[in-house]
Amino acid sequence: xxxxxxxxxxxxxxxxxxxxxxxxxxxxxxxxxxxxxxxxxxxxxxxxxxxxxxxxxxxxxxxxxxxxxxxxxxxxxxxxxxxxxxxxxxxxxxxxxxxxxxxxxxxxxxxxxxxxxxxxxxxxxxxxxxxxxxxxxxxxxxxxxxxxxxxxxxxxxxxxxxxxxxxxxxxxxxxxxxxxxxxxxxxxxxxxxxxxxxxxxxxxxxxxxxxxxxxxxxxxxxxxxxxxxxxxxxxxxxxxxxxxxxxxxxxxxxxxxxxxxxxxxxxxxxxxxxxxxxxxxxxxxxxxxxxxxxxxxxxxxxxxxxxxxxxxxxxxxxxxxxxxxxxxxxxxxxxxxxxxxxxxxxxxxxxxxxxxxxxxxxxxxxxxxxxxxxxxxxxxxxxxxxxxxxxxxxxxxxxxxxxxxxxxx
Length: 409
What we know:
Layout: H1 6-33, H2 44-98, H3 105-126, E1 147-152, E2 161-167, E3 175-179, E4 182-185, H4 190-193, E5 200-202, E6 216-220, E7 223-227, H5 233-241, E8 247-251, E9 258-262, E10 270-272, H6 277-280, E11 295-297, H7 301-314, H8 317-371, H9 375-399, H10 404-408
Antiparallel strand pairs: 1-2, 3-4, 5-9, 5-11, 6-7, 6-10, 8-9
Helix pairs in contact: 1-9, 2-3, 2-8, 3-7, 7-8
């Protein structure tokens, strides 16, 4: 049984007054933030659901940011490809002009000088970098140059000219995530963009009786193909053909050697992963180095332009009108295909970005419906709490008036 005294009245006043003060602070916090839930304890179930919605909206915004960066990157890449197309188109015009037989050898040499300058410019395009100083066309080898030009003495020229352009990058791909479980390739390797013909390699060694000695792997254009101990050459060929690489393997019926042929214009990048299968087959001698005796067909865009320039220097109109012009057309077609691929990826990302924008707004609205504040109700509740507090203070001032007897007790 509680004793009724002035201390009890005072304690009750402090208890209920503190309760009302906390309620007023809560409503004032809600009105200042415009959210009904600012702490987990205010509504644990709704707060947990709200955190899931906020997390989803944040992820979608991150994906949208990734897409914006990739589209801007694609714009830079496409601008360089467009410049390469213009250069290649001008070189083709000069090749057709030099092949019609109405120009003297001296005049075709003038054309060769222009072609050589365009070739130098194309090499600069191939070694272009983005705003961060990273190579655009070197695969994932972005810190180095994509291409290296080799200059030697060329017949018909008093000064050394570009005689070969080597690709220094790799064929590895770089993926960008733009959704939960969705990625897109963002890298365009120079050994595909600046290529002209399908490449065909014939190994240097006979593969009669070849058997894989141990569990091994080979890497083709950055894709790993696993092999098992005891696999024959026909099993190796099947595993390559069943892989996702743009390469088809076969067996040469005359020399009994392994033949690798690309299904689209690009330079092959080959290496051994585990073991030394490619080395044993006479394909490579060290990482990405073709073995001595390997027969290779198919050239790059640079090879076609160098051949066109040299033919103009020597006045070889027959070569200009035949193989060289055909090679330039193949390079032109391949470059247009790559640009079409880039454009389709950019359109896909733009559509995905539009969808992400709608989804983000949906989750934001959903979250607001959970923890959003009804301002009118909050204002009414705050007014009610203030009225209660004023009444409490008024009543307390009358009931809890101290007297001399209170001190004498």
